[in-house]
Design goal:
Layout lengths: L8 H8 L5 H12 L1 H6 L2 H8 L3 H10 L5 H13 L6 H10 L5 H19 L2 H13 L3 E5 L4 H12 L5 E3 L7 H5 L7 E6 L5 H13 L2 E6 L12 E4 L12 H18 L1 H16 L7
Parallel strand pairs: 1-2, 1-3, 3-4, 4-5
Length: about 290
């Protein structure tokens, strides 16, 4: 049945669940728990991850009121996009209206939920592929703007302790165009972009993809326009009672990726870390305590 106003996915599932076969219930349970995956990954990938055939997902979509699986997928995208509809002003207004409620426990609870969701939202095999790609790249260019800029600095700071192939584009006097020049299939561009999305991050993804470089995106939604140019992407949840999104889950993902890279690099990474520590001591970079 088609309607001008598609039902919410979970509502549609609940209304028809009793009539579904066991196989379609498994598919329905997976969709209800993994709307980010439904919105961003191919039907083949979803079927593989859930152990249910693509044809079963098509049958499920029709059984719960959608014309086909693609219509269900568009509804998942629409529902996820609503997370970003509120303006910062709206969020700040709600924050003021809840001023009598302690913020710390609410912020901590939201961050814990976002971080815990990484286990469900991140495909371990995809994570391994990304680490493999970074480990084998000739050059790694990290790009971020607006609120994401500081996190690109942090990512590159961690990585440069054990690997000198990393650079942050468009920061500290390095022009974005300069950093993207000369890229090729052996190189990787890693973009961090959260809502509100910076135009330069979208354009950088487009330029990097056109150069033949592999593009990795860390973002908070399938709605990031640069996602169309990505070879790999990870979506992290950013829910927060604050007026701005939380980067807690993104920090955990950044630290996980760098930790995996150190483990892959082995003794070479240890030797470089030791050398960096020696130079930092010689330059008196650290406070002795």
């Amino acid at each position: 049945m088609e309607t001008n106003s598609p039902p919410q996915i979970r509502t549609a599932i609940s209304a028809s669940y009793a009539e579904l076969s066991e196989t379609l219930r498994i598919a329905a349970d997976y969709i209800a728990k993994n709307q980010v995956e439904i919105a961003t990954r191919s039907l083949r990938s979803v079927a593989s991850a859930s152990g249910v055939s693509p044809a079963s997902y098509t049958r499920l979509a029709r059984a719960i009121g959608y014309s086909d699986y693609e219509a269900l997928r568009e509804q998942a995208r629409s529902e996820l996009s609503k997370r970003e509809e509120d303006s910062f002003q709206d969020k700040a207004r709600r924050l003021r209206s809840d001023a009598d409620l302690p913020l710390l426990p609410r912020q901590v609870a939201a961050c814990i939920d976002n971080i815990q969701s990484l286990i469900d939202d991140i495909d371990p095999e995809l994570l391994e592929q990304v680490v493999d790609r970074l480990a084998s790249s000739r050059k790694i260019v990290v790009i971020g703007a607006l609120a994401s800029a500081g996190f690109t600095d942090y990512f590159a700071y961690l990585a440069k302790w054990f690997d000198d192939r990393w650079m942050v584009a468009g920061r500290n006097g390095t022009a974005l165009g300069t950093a993207l020049s000369g890229l090729g299939p052996q190189d990787t561009v890693l973009i961090i972009s959260k809502h509100p999305y910076a135009h330069r991050s979208v354009r950088a993804a487009m330029v990097a993809a056109a150069s033949g470089a592999k593009v990795i995106v860390l973002t908070d939604s399938h709605a990031f326009p640069g996602l169309q140019y990505a070879d790999f992407h990870f979506i992290q949840r950013t829910e927060s009672p604050n007026f701005f999104s939380s980067y807690a889950a993104t920090l955990v993902l950044i630290e996980t990726i760098t930790g995996m890279l150190v483990a892959r690099a082995g003794s070479e990474a240890e030797a470089r870390i030791q050398e960096v520590e020696k130079h930092n001591r010689l330059l008196d970079e650290f406070e002795n305590v």
